[in-house]
Design brief:
The protein is an all-alpha fold. The protein has one domain. Helix content is 84%, strand content 0%. It contains four helices and no strands. The longest helix is centred in the C-terminal third of the chain and has 41 residues. InterPro entries: DUF2798. This is DUF2798 domain-containing protein.
Amino acid sequence: MPRNKKESLIFGVIMCMGMVSVMATYNLLMLEDLEKLTLQTVLTEIIAGFIVALILDLYIVGPLAKKLTFRLPFDKSNKVLVVLCMSTSMIIGMVFFMSLFGLLMSYLGHGLDGRGVLSAYGTIFVKNFILAFPLQLLVMGPIVRYIFTTFVQREKVA
């Protein structure tokens, strides 16, 4: 795991790139008007999503998840529990905020299609959580931790 601000930034960039790429693709595929998508729309969504996700990760959700994790009453020497608690906190926080971002992008792109704001947000949140939770815990989290410890932290030792 990251030991300083530089490593936190690198870890956050790698994680956000992976999660935003998959989640943006998923959300674009959930749209019913796939044939209307342009390369510009896709790139705009991914780049904007990456910037928003990285800011949230580094300055809002990340610090809050860390505080919450280390305030909860469990054995912090158990690294697996720490990673699971931190990851779960991050997933919930990021899905909460990135679903708001998705709602805004959807509204700007084609409106809410007659749905209420809360209904549209609830639908987006649930769909995002259903993919983000297993994606983060089972796929991206382990892959990013492996890449990070193998290529980033190894450089410090060498």
